Amino acid sequence: MENKKRILAVIPARGGSKSVLNKNIKELSGKPLICYTIELSKKIKAFDKVVVSTDSEDIAKISRASGVDVVARPEKLSTDISRTEDALLNVLKYYDSIGEKFDIVATLEPTSPLRTKETVINCVNYYMQSPCDSLITVVEDRGYLWMNTDANNFSPLFENQSRRRQDRKPLYKEAGGIYITNVTGLIKNKAIIGGVLCLYVVDERESLDINSHTDFLIAESIFMNSLRGRPE
């Protein structure tokens, strides 16, 4: 019988944030933002371990209290220009040093509190059943897009596209909520996206990526008006 592939769920949560101070632990509908992702991740049976990668002791304290591992992220991997991939490699290096091996990394950004348990499970199942090396969530976009061709001139991204939204061919925008990556490829290429890439389409609500005070207000409004209360 083939051995089960081990999946490590990583929640990358840097302490610094220019847009919103202490964004990852700012309260949303009564609890720190990161807790939505931690609680969700703990419900996914396919995950063999859930870990938070952070440089912040405040984030670490909340994460440990929520019952997940914490791997300290070095300061040099915690700047505004630091890559998520380097944080993931740092986590894998730590677990390798204590004799724990993983085949797949699922990266769940803490800024996507409306992502659902069902979507995460579906992404994992799709990844496992497809010839994917990496998978990302995307949202459909049928906007009429323009590009800046030079200093003061703009032109449509696609010529002769219909003015009717429903007649346009959809584009797909990266949602940022879920990334699934083969560990071998991640280590070799130092890239979260590579090899055979699969896209999983999520709805606009789940694609909300909190990066501003306005995003917090939108999420708060959705929670208050949702019949389900909070996402599972």
Task: Looking at this protein, list some descriptive labels.
232 residues; alpha/beta; two-stranded antiparallel sheet; 6 helices; 11 strands; 28% helix; globular
Task: Give a written overview of the molecule.
The longest helix is centred in the middle third of the chain and has 14 residues. It is globular and about 60 Å long. It has 6 helices and 11 strands. It has a 7-stranded mixed β-sheet, sandwiched between helices. The chain has a two-stranded antiparallel ribbon with strand order 2-3. The chain is 28% helix and 26% strand. β2 and β3 form a beta hairpin. The mean pLDDT is 89. It is of the alpha/beta class and 232 residues long.
What secondary-structure arrangement, pairings included, does this model have?
Layout lengths: L6 E6 L14 E2 L2 E2 H10 L6 E6 L2 H9 L3 E4 L11 H14 L6 E5 L8 H13 L4 E8 L4 E5 L2 E4 L14 E12 H7 L7 E6 L10 H13 L7
Parallel strand pairs: 1-4, 1-6, 4-5, 7-11
Antiparallel strand pairs: 2-3, 6-10, 7-10, 8-9
Please summarize what this structure is:
This protein is an alpha/beta fold.
Instruction: Please give the radius of gyration in angstroms.
Output: 19 Å
Order of helices and strands: EEEHEHEHEHEEEEHEH
Low-pLDDT segments: none
Round the mean pLDDT to the nearest integer and report it.
Answer: 89
Lateral strand order in the biggest sheet: 5-4-1-6-10-7-11
Number of helices: 6
Termini Cα gap: 33 Å
Query: The biggest beta sheet, please?
Result: 7 strands, mixed
* Helix coverage percent: 25-40%
How much of the residues is beta strand, in percent?
25-35%
- Structural class computed from helices and strand pairing: alpha/beta
Approximate shape: globular
Would you count the extended β strands for me?
Answer: 11
